[in-house]
Amino acid sequence: MLDNHQKNIATFIHLSTFSRFIIPFGNFIGPIVLWVANKEKSEFVDQHGKQAINFQISMLLYAIIIGTLSIPFFVFNLFSHFDFIDFNGFHDFHINIGKPSALLYIGGALGVVAVIAFIIELVLIVNASLKARDGAYYKYPFTINFLK
């Protein structure tokens, strides 16, 4: 039987991922500290802690992948439009920017995907914390299980 303390700890494990908006890497530090301190006391807390940490690691990997794919598109698009022959000193510097290339559209689309993924991540964290509050187990979608 789950008591309120176990439900609260599991809920705070999920909600502690929002500490990343205040503390760098708080989305890892908060859940790990709460999980390590309480995983031996409750199987319920242990499962929620593993899910929260696995989800945060998975989201970090997805963000790295999207970033490494989208940043080069913007950089290549930026440098493809420089007109280096027209550079006559700092008083007469011209950048000839023509119509956007397909690279810019691909990079922009990946940026939109990143924003949508961020919003979905926030919704999933809130959903997981509500399930934990109610005493139910929750499995994040799109998660790679590093901790089993």
From TrEMBL:
Compartments (UniProt record): Membrane
InterPro entries given in the database record: MamF_MmsF
Entry keyword annotation includes Transmembrane helix: yes
Keywords: Membrane, Transmembrane, Transmembrane helix
Annotated membrane topology: Multi-pass membrane protein
Domain of life where this protein originates: Bacteria
UniProt keyword Metal-binding, yes or no: no
Main location per the UniProt record: membrane
Pfam families: MamF_MmsF
Membrane-spanning parts: 12-38, 59-82, 102-126
Protein name: DUF4870 domain-containing protein
